[in-house]
Amino acid sequence: MSANIKIFHSAMPGAPVLSGTAGALIAILDACLVNGFGLKSVDSIVVAAGIATVSIPSGHIFEKDSCITVAGATPAGLNGEKKVLSATATTLTFDATGIANGAATGTLTAVLTPAGFTKLFSGTNLAAYKSSNPAASGGVLRVDDTATQSARLTGYESMSDVNTGVGKTPTDVQVSGGLYWPKSSAASAAARDWMVIADDRTFYVFLAPSTTYSPTRYFTAGFGDTLPTLATDTTYSWFVSGQPAFDPSVTGSTTRASDLGYANFNLTSGARYSPRSFTGLGSAVRLDNPNIKWRSGPSWSGNTAASNIFIAFPNCDGGLYIERSQLLEATTTTGWYFRAELPGFYHLPQQTGDQFLTRDRLPTNNALVGRSVWAVRCGAAVTSGDFGTVALDITGPWR
């Protein structure tokens, strides 16, 4: 299976539109997870010194670090999934190591490669998605996109049709009817910004439903397999996250606390769930994320910037610090287990303010050296008291 990370966003020409209309979110998930989009006829592919240069005189939507699927080429080694190394308005390049110099023949096409999920079931503005990777845990995500401003999301251990499944996550006791992913602050066809970043087992969505805060306050959520700390915690180590209450403006403290980028350690409104405990027993359990309180005071309380102690940026050593985002599971007493990490998703524990904008490439060190890492803003300007910035590894692999 592919180790490449797939990136998609609303600024790509011809991308599906996120709006306050029924079915808008499913159209995006279908395009990014299952089908791909941006199909183009290719004029030529020429290989020189291990680099293939693709010419598309009519223009294209592909960009550096995106993944494309090439078809119709001879030699056959030019076909298949390719990571874009560079791109102009009418050309792009990818690695063609081992392929002889020369021009390809055939009827050539290129399209953005989907993440690698299967759409198991569908209905009218309903869908169920599952990873196609045989190594995946097997969790299924059901999307109810019948409303206008927000979709409802529920995970299942398995499903037999689009309305029937076992191991509902979260349970109706925890969040009746499923979690919310906000699409738009208005019930209209007006476009809203979005991004999807994924491998073939986990995907993250970044939604900007309110034009008041776009593009500095993306709602961040996701679904798929985590990186568990316990080797035997595989079947139930997937997660689903979202809002526990309807808030299309992404302004409420409880709904922002459920956000992966604004997760708070001790709020009972936290809305990240796994289908069972790491023991494999019981039903859905709530997960917490301590990163927003990284290196904070001993109270671990509150979710405003005034109660957090963020490291200054740049640090005294001039550095930018990027740490993995953790998921905790409550014990039967008052403590927590470090259950898992989110693959490819990182937290910035520093007060970066407006230093980085969404899709800026961050400087990297240690394990991330040599990788492209995108900043994603999930908080407004520093003057507002919100410092949320997360980072996504768009090179991979995540596992």
Characteristic key phrases:
2 helices; single chain; 399 residues; twelve-stranded antiparallel beta sheet; mainly beta; globular; 29 strands; 4% helix; eight-stranded antiparallel beta sheet
Please count the helical segments: 2
Overall structural class, as computed from helix and strand content, comes to: mainly beta
Over all CA atoms, what is the radius of gyration? 21 Å
Report strand %. Answer: 35-45%
Number of strands: 29
Quaternary state of the chains:
single chain
**Overall shape:** globular
Low-confidence stretches: 263-268, 293-307, 381-386
Mean of all residue-level pLDDT scores: 88
Distance from N terminus to C terminus (CA atoms, Å) equals 12 Å
User: What percentage of residues falls in helices of 4 or more residues?
Assistant: under 10%
- Main sheet makeup: 12 strands, antiparallel
List the helices and strands and how they pair.
Elements: E1 6-9, H1 24-35, E2 40-42, E3 44-48, E4 51-55, E5 67-71, E6 80-87, E7 91-95, E8 102-103, E9 108-112, E10 117-123, E11 126-131, E12 140-144, E13 150-156, E14 158-161, E15 164-166, E16 179-182, E17 193-198, E18 202-208, E19 219-225, E20 227-228, E21 238-241, H2 253-257, E22 272-274, E23 285-288, E24 311-312, E25 323-330, E26 336-347, E27 350-351, E28 373-377, E29 389-393
Parallel strand pairs: 24-27
Antiparallel strand pairs: 1-17, 2-9, 3-4, 3-8, 4-7, 5-6, 5-9, 6-7, 10-11, 11-12, 12-13, 13-16, 14-15, 17-18, 18-19, 19-21, 20-26, 21-22, 22-23, 23-25, 25-26, 26-29, 28-29
